[in-house]
Design brief:
The complex is a heterotrimer of chains A (206), B (619) and C (332). Chain A has 206 residues and is an all-alpha fold. Chain A is built from six helices and no strands. Chain A is elongated. Chain C contains eight helices and twelve strands. Chain C has a five-stranded mixed beta sheet. The chains are: A mainly alpha (206), B mainly alpha (619), C alpha+beta (332). At the B-C interface, helix 3, helix 8, helix 9, helix 10 and helix 11 of B face helix 1, helix 2 and strand 9 of C.
Chain lengths: 206, 619, 332
C-alpha cells in the first residue's frame, strides 16, 4: 500500500503511526529526542536551583510572582494536554474531523498560554525583574523562556500540520506526524508542571 | 518515481544532496581528516614553543588561542566526525540494513557539524580565535575580549546539534533496522560501541547545549549566570561542562574499543574472547561515565565527601576496562595473528591504553590529584587515552575499512612506516610529560624558566611530536599513492567475519541486494565455516525503497551558520548582524517548513533493474 | 620507582615533598604507582608472550579454535582488580579527609600543638596575574612572596578577585582553586617542614600571562617569622631618605593609588611593603634595578594582559623610581 494513500475504515491499522518502518523509526526517534530534551531541561532546572536565591539587583521571587495568573496558565496548558489526548483517540479510530477539531482546540489553548506568559513577563519587567537584573533573573527567563519557546514551536508545528493536511484524510505518512506532535505536547506540558512547582510554588514559599 | 535519483546532475550536486550513509561517511572522514591536520599543526606550534625554556615563538594570548583551538578542534571537529565516519560507513552494513533510520537527518547532522566547524575556524581570520581553553571556564571565558569565545560558543553549538541528531539516528537505526536474526547479542562489537556511544551523545550533549546557551547569554545578552558580582556562580559552568565532558570521553573511546575488537579478532582468525563480557563492560562503562564528572573538579572545593565518592566511582571504571584489555589479549591467545597495518595499530593500542588507564586510576585518587591536576601529568594521561587510545584505534579502523569505504587498499609498506613513526613519536612526546607534571609544570603554560630544570624533557617531547608529524605525513602520502594507483580489491580482502564484508566492491548504493539472514555472532564467518559462498538471503529479490536526495540539509545548515555569524557580531555590527540573525534563522525555518510541507515518499529501485544490474553476480 | 624521588628542581618538584600535605600526597602517589606497576607488569608479560608465541607462521593455514570465553579467567580478572582498587580506595578516602579543613580537624590540631589560639589564618587572593597574601590577625598584607613559619600548621582561605586561578605549592601541598565570589571561598592547610624558599604557581588557565603567575614561598624559623611579622606591622609609609625623595614623589603621584606601602596606598596592585627584600620583580624577573626599570617601562611586554598601565616615564624618572623602590625595606 502506498504510504500517501488515504486510509479507509476497512484498511485502517491498529496503530497507523507505527504501521510503517518510517513510522516506527519516527516514533522511537522522537521518544529518544524527548529523552535528550529531558536532560536539556534538567540542566536548566539545575542551573535555576543553583541561582534562585541570587537576586542581584532585582526584586525577590516571593515579591513578584503572581500565582493566580500562573495558575490559570497551568490550567490552560493541562487542558490542552487533555484535548490532544482526545485528538489522538480520534486518530486511532480514523475520525479525521474530530481529530482535527481537538488539535485545533489544543492550538488555541497554546496560543492563550503564550499570551498569558507574555503578559506575565511584561509585568515582571515593569517590576524591575529583568533578564539582566541578577543571576535569578537570567535563570528564570532562560528556564521559563525555553519552555515558552517550546510551546511556540509546538503551536507553529500543529498549525502547519493542520493547514497542510486540510482536506486530506489520514495516511500512513501523516499519522505519525500528528501522533508525534501529541507526544511533544505532553512533554511540554509535563515540563510546565515542574516549572510551576519548582519556580513558582517554591519561589512563593521562599 | 525511480528516476528521481537520476544522475544527470553534477558530481558536486550529488555530494551536497546525498543522503546515502556511505557517502556521508566519506564526507565525515574527509572533513574530520582535514580538521585533524589543522589540530595537529596547532599541536606542533605548541611543541615548538615549549621546546626550550623561555622561548618567544608563540606567547601570551596567541599561545592560548592555539592551545584552545588545538583541544577544541581535535575533540569536536576531528575525533567526533571521524567516529561518525566509521559509524556511517560500517554500522548499517554490520547489521544488514539498507540505510540509516533517518537519511535526511543524517545529512543534516553532517552539514551542521561542517558549518559549525567552519564557523569556529573562521575566528582565525576575523580577529582571533577563542583563548579560554577547550573547557572555556567562566568567568575567564565570559570576560575574554574580542569575539574568539563567541565563535567557540556558536560554532560548537551548531556542530553539537548535528552530533545530537547523529546520536539519535544511530540509536534508532540499531534498534529498529537489524536484519532478521541479528539479535542484540549477535551484533558485532563495533555496532555495540556505536550504540552505547550514541546513547551517551543523546544524554550528554543536551547539557552542553544549555551550557553554551548560558555562556552565550552571559557574553552577548548580558545575563549573569557566571558573574559573581550579580549573584552568578562560575562553578555551575564547570559542572555543566563536565556532566557533558566526562561522558564525551567515553563517547570518544568506546568506538575505538569497538574497532580494536573487530580488528584483533579478524586478524587472529578467532572469535572475540568473552563477547558477552565485552558487551556488558561497554554498557557499564557508558553508564558509569555519567557518575564521575566531578573527578575533573577535585580541586574546585566540593568538599571531602563529594571528592571521596567521585574518587571511588572513578576507580570502579577501571574494572570493566580491565576486562576489555584481558579479553583482547586472550582473543589473540591461541590465534594466528597476522600483523597487517590495521592490526599493528590495534595491537599498539593495547599497551598504550593500559598505560593511560593506570594513570587514570592514579588520577582518581582524589588527594593525589591535588598534585596531578592541571599539570602535565594530566596532559600526558589524556593524550595517552585519546591519542594512544582513540587515534591509534581510528588509524586501525581506517586501514581496516578503507577497502570497504573506497574500494582500494592502503599501501601496507607505507602503512607500517606510518605506524612505527607515529607510535614511537607518540610515546616520545607524551611519556616524558608525566614527569614534567610531577616536577611542577602546570598545563597551559607557554613558557618556563630555565632554573626549573624542565628543559630536557620538554625537548624530548618536541622531538616526539616531530615523529608524529612524520607519521601523519606518511599517512597522507599513503592516501595519495593508493588512490593514484587505484587498484581495486575484492569485497572481502581480510577474510572478514562480519556482515560488512559480505557484499561486492564497490558497495551497491542500496547495500544488500537481499537482506541477509543472520545465524549467529560473526555472521559471515559462520557461513564461511559452513561452506557457503555468502550470506543466506532472508527475502527474495524485490523492489528496494530508497530515500530521495535533498539540498535542504545543506541550505538549512548554511542558514544557521549565517545566523551564528550574526549573533557573534550582534553587539558590535548592529543592523547587518541583526539581519544575518533573522535571515539565517529564517532560512533554517523555511527549510524545516519545506521539509514538513513537501511530501517525500522516496522512490523504489525496481526488481527488473536490480536483476539487470546484478547479472552474473551471485544473488 | 625510587628513581622518581629527587626528580626536578627541589623548590618546585612534587617529588621532593617538604611539607606534611605534600608528603601525604607523595605516599599516596607511590602506593597507587606501586599497585599500577603490578598491573602493568602482568599485562605486559601476557601481551609480550602472545605477540611472540601466536604470530602467524608461514605455511600455517589451520583455523584456530573459536574459543568463546573462559568463566574462571573472566571472574579472576574482574575480582583481582576490585581487590587492588579497594587497597587504593581506603587510603584515598582517608587522605581526602585528612587534607580537608573541617571544624574537627582544626580542633585536633589545636590540641596537638597545645596552642590555645589554633592555627594562624592567611587569606590568599589571586589576581590577574599576581598573588595577595593577607595575615588578618596580624594586620599584615603582602604580595608575591608568602611567608610561612616552619613546622606549624597554617589555614589558608582562598579566593579570587577576577577569574578562577589555582593556588599550588607542589613541594608543600596540593593545589586548590581560587574562585570568584564570597560563596565559593575555599579552605586548605599548609604545614611546611623545612626552612627554605619554594616555588608557587597558578595552575588554572587565567589569561594571557597565566604562565607568569609565579610566587615565592619563604619558610622561616618561628622566631624569624615572628620578627618578620613585627617589622611588617611596624613599617609606615614615611618620608624616604633624601637621595630617593624624587623617586618617592613620582611614586606618590603615579603609583600609590594602586600599590600600598606600609599604612598607605590602594590595593588594586600588589602591596610593595618590604619590596626591597623580594626575590623577584613581578614574580618572575631577577630582582635588580635594571629589571625594575624594565618592568615599569614595559609591563605589557613582560606580563601581557596585566592591569598595570604604561606611564611613559623617561629614563631619569625610571632611575629615581627604581632607586626609591630599592629603599622600600621593612622596619628594623
Amino acid at each position: 500500500m502506498d504510504v500517501g494513500q488515504r486510509l479507509t475504515d476497512q484498511n485502517f491499522p491498529e496503530s497507523p503511526e507505527k504501521a510503517t518502518l518510517e513510522g516506527k523509526n519516527k516514533f522511537l526517534g522522537f521518544w529518544l529526542f524527548l529523552g535528550g530534551e529531558t536532560v536539556l531541561f534538567a540542566t536548566l532546572f539545575g542551573t535555576y536551583l543553583g541561582l534562585r536565591n541570587s537576586f542581584g539587583k532585582g526584586p525577590e521571587a516571593s515579591e513578584i510572582f503572581q500565582l493566580p495568573i500562573v495558575f490559570i496558565a497551568t490550567m490552560i496548558l493541562l487542558t490542552s494536554s487533555l484535548t490532544s489526548v482526545y485528538a489522538v483517540l480520534a486518530l486511532k479510530e480514523n475520525r479525521v474531523k474530530a481529530m482535527r477539531g481537538w488539535f485545533f482546540v489544543t492550538l488555541l489553548l497554546g496560543v492563550a498560554f503564550l499570551g498569558l506568559e507574555i503578559y506575565e513577563f511584561v509585568h515582571y519587567v515593569h517590576e524591575g525583574h529583568t533578564f539582566t537584573s541578577g543571576a535569578f533573573g537570567s535563570a528564570f527567563y532562560t528556564l521559563v523562556g525555553f519552555h515558552g519557546g517550546h510551546v511556540l514551536f509546538g503551536v507553529l508545528w500543529i498549525a502547519a500540520l493542520l493547514v497542510r493536511n486540510s482536506g486530506r484524510g489520514l495516511t500512513l505518512y501523516n499519522s505519525p506526524k500528528y501522533y508525534l506532535f501529541a507526544l511533544y505536547w505532553h512533554f511540554v506540558d509535563v515540563v510546565w508542571v515542574f516549572i510551576f512547582t519548582v519556580v513558582y510554588l517554591m519561589g512563593k514559599v521562599g | 518515481m525511480s528516476n528521481a535519483h537520476a544522475a544527470n546532475k553534477s558530481v558536486l550536486w550529488d555530494w551536497l544532496t546525498t543522503v546515502d550513509h556511505k557517502k556521508i561517511g566519506i564526507l565525515y572522514l574527509i572533513s574530520g581528516g582535514f580538521f585533524f591536520l589543522v589540530g595537529g599543526l596547532e599541536a606542533l606550534l605548541i611543541r615548538i614553543q615549549l621546546m626550550g625554556p623561555e622561548m618567544t615563538f608563540l606567547t601570551g594570548d596567541l599561545y592560548n588561542q592555539v592551545l584552545t583551538m588545538h583541544g577544541t578542534t581535535m575533540i569536536f571537529l576531528a575525533a567526533m566526525p571521524i567516529i561518525f565516519a566509521f559509524m556511517n560507513a560500517v554500522v548499517p552494513l554490520q547489521i544488514g540494513a539498507r540505510d540509516v533510520a533517518f537519511p535526511f537527518l543524517n545529512s543534516l547532522g553532517f552539514w551542521l557539524f561542517f558549518f559549525g566547524g567552519v564557523l569556529l575556524n573562521l575566528s582565525w581570520f576575523l580577529g582571533g580565535a577563542p583563548d579560554a581553553g577547550w573547557t572555556a571556564y567562566a568567568p575567564l571565558s565570559t570576560q575574554s575580549s574580542g569575539h574568539g569565545v563567541d565563535f567557540y560558543v556558536l560554532g560548537l553549538q551548531i556542530s553539537g546539534a548535528g552530533t545530537l541528531m547523529g546520536g539519535i539516528n544511530f540509536l534508532v537505526t540499531i534498534i529498529n533496522m537489524r536484519a532478521p536474526g541479528m539479535t542484540f547479542m549477535r551484533m558485532p562489537l563495533f555496532t555495540w560501541t556505536a550504540f552505547v556511544t550514541s546513547g551517551l551523545i543523546l544524554f550528554a550533549f543536551p547539557a552542553l547545549t544549555i551550557g553554551f546557551f548560558l555562556l552565550m547569554f552571559d557574553r552577548i545578552f548580558e545575563a549573569n549566570f557566571f558573574d559573581a558580582n550579580m549573584g552568578g556562580n562560575a562553578i555551575i559552568w564547570e559542572h555543566i561542562f563536565w556532566i557533558f565532558g566526562h561522558p564525551e570521553v567515553y563517547i570518544l573511546i568506546l568506538p575505538a574499543f569497538g574497532i580494536i575488537s573487530e580488528v584483533v579478532a579478524t586478524f587472529a582468525k578467532k572469535r572475540l574472547f568473552g563477547y558477552s563480557a565485552m558487551v556488558f563492560a561497554t554498557v557499564l562503562i557508558g553508564f558509569l561515565g555519567f557518575m564521575v564528572w566531578a573527578h575533573h573538579m577535585f580541586t574546585v572545593g566540593l568538599g571531602p565527601v563529594a571528592n571521596s565518592i567521585f574518587a571511588v566511582a572513578t576507580m570502579a571504571i577501571a574494572i570493566p576496562t580491565g576486562v576489555k584489555i584481558f579479553n583482547w589479549i586472550f582473543t589473540m591467545w591461541g590465534g594466528r595473528n597476522r600483523f597487517t597495518t590495521a592490526n599493528l595499530f590495534s595491537v599498539g593500542f593495547i599497551p598504550t591504553f593500559v598505560m593511560g588507564g593506570v594513570t587514570g586510576v592514579m588520577l582518581a585518587a582524589a588527594p593525589a590529584d591535588y598534585q596531578y591536576h592541571d599539570s602535565y601529568f594530566v596532559v600526558a594521561h589524556f593524550h595517552y587515552v585519546i591519542v594512544g587510545g582513540l587515534i591509534l584505534g581510528l588509524f586501525s579502523g581506517l586501514y581496516y575499512w578503507y577497502p570497504r569505504m573506497f574500494g582500494v587498499m592502503l599501501n601496507e609498506t607505507l602503512g607500517k612506516w606510518n605506524f612505527w613513526t607515529f607510535f614511537i613519536g607518540f610515546h616520545l612526546t607524551f611519556f616524558p610529560q608525566h614527569f614534567l607534571g610531577l616536577m611542577g609544570m602546570p598545563r597551559r603554560y607557554f613558557t618556563y624558566p630555565e632554573e626549573f630544570q624542565l628543559g630536557s624533557l620538554n625537548f624530548i617531547s618536541t622531538i616526539g611530536a616531530i615523529g608524529m608529524t612524520v607519521g601523519t605525513i606518511i599517512f597522507v602520502i599513503n592516501i595519495i599513492v593508493t588512490h593514484a594507483k587505484g587498484e581495486k580489491v575484492s569485497g572481502d580482502p581480510w577474510d572478514g567475519r562480519t556482515l560488512e564484508w559480505a557484499m561486492p566492491n564497490p558497495t551497491p548504493h542500496y547495500n544488500f541486494l537481499q537482506t541477509p539472514l543472520v545465524r549467529g555472532l560473526d555472521a559471515l564467518w559462520i557461513e564461511k565455516m559452513a561452506g557457503n559462498k555468502g550470506m543466506t538471503p532472508a527475502e527474495p529479490i524485490g523492489d528496494i525503497h530508497m530515500p530521495n536526495n535533498s539540498i535542504l540539509p545543506f541550505v538549512m545548515s548554511l542558514g544557521f551558520f549565517i545566523a551564528g555569524l550574526g549573533f557573534i557580531y550582534i553587539n558590535t555590527a548592529g543592523l547587518p548582524a541583526l539581519i544575518a540573525v533573522i535571515g539565517g534563522i529564517g532560512i533554517g525555518l523555511v527549510c524545516m517548513f519545506l521539509r514538513s510541507w513537501i511530501d517525500d515518499h522516496g522512490y523504489h529501485i525496481h526488481k527488473e533493474d536490480l536483476l539487470k544490474e546484478n547479472k552474473g553476480v551471485d544473488a | 620507582m625510587l628513581g622518581l624521588m629527587g626528580c626536578g628542581n627541589p623548590q618546585l618538584s612534587a617529588l621532593q615533598p617538604q611539607g606534611k600535605g605534600a608528603s601525604a600526597l607523595f605516599d599516596l602517589m607511590i602506593l597507587s604507582l606501586a599497585i599500577m606497576v603490578v598491573v602493568l607488569v602482568v599485562v605486559f608479560i601476557l601481551f609480550g608472550y602472545v605477540l611472540v608465541k601466536f604470530r602467524e607462521r608461514k605455511g600455517d593455514d589451520t583455523i584456530p579454535e573459536q574459543v568463546e570465553g573462559n568463566h574462571m579467567l573472566e571472574v579472576l580478572w574482574t575480582a583481582i582488580p576490585i581487590v587492588l582498587l579497594l587497597v587504593l580506595a581506603v587510603p584515598t578516602v582517608m587522605t581526602t579527609f585528612d587534607l580537608a579543613v573541617s571544624e574537627k580537624s582544626a580542633e585536633e590540631s589545636k590540641d596537638a600543638s597545645g596552642d590555645k589560639e589554633g592555627p594562624m589564618t592567611i587569606n590568599v587572593t589571586a589576581h590577574q596575574y599576581w598573588w595577595e597574601f593577607e595575615y588578618p590577625d596580624q594586620g599584615v598584607i603582602t604580595s608575591q612572596e608568602l611567608y610561612l613559619p616552619v613546622d606549624e600548621r597554617v589555614n589558608v582561605n582562598l579566593s579570587s578577585a577576577d577569574v578562577i586561578h589555582s593556588f599550588w605549592i607542589p613541594t608543600i601541598s596540593g593545589k586548590m582553586d581560587t574562585n570568584p565570589g564570597d560563596k565559593l571561598e575555599n579552605k586548605m592547610w599548609l604545614h611546611p617542614e623545612k626552612v627554605g624558599t619554594f616555588q608557587g604557581a597558578c595552575a588554572e588557565l587565567c589569561g594571557d600571562s597565566h604562565a607568569l603567575m609565579y610566587f615565592k614561598v619563604k619558610v622561616l624559623e618561628k622566631e624569624e617569622f615572628d620578627a618578620w611579622i613585627e617589622s611588617m606591622k611596624n613599617t609606615k609609609y614615611d618620608d624616604a631618605p633624601s637621595q630617593v625623595a624624587e623617586g618617592q614623589k613620582i611614586f606618590e603621584n603615579n603609583c600609590l593609588s594602586c600599590h600600598a606601602v606600609g599604612d598607605k596606598g590602594g590595593n588594586v596592585g600588589p602591596a610593595l611593603t618590604g619590596f626591597a627584600d623580594n626575590e623577584k620583580v613581578a614574580g618572575i624577573l631577577e630582582h635588580n634595578k635594571d629589571n625594575i626599570k624594565d618592568w615599569i617601562n614595559n609591563p605589557q611586554d613582560i606580563k601581557p594582559g596585566n592591569n598595570m598601565p604604561d606611564f611613559n616615564f623617561n629614563e631619569q624618572q625610571l632611575d629615581a623610581l627604581a632607586d626609591y623602590l630599592l629603599e622600600l625595606k621593612t622596619a628594623e
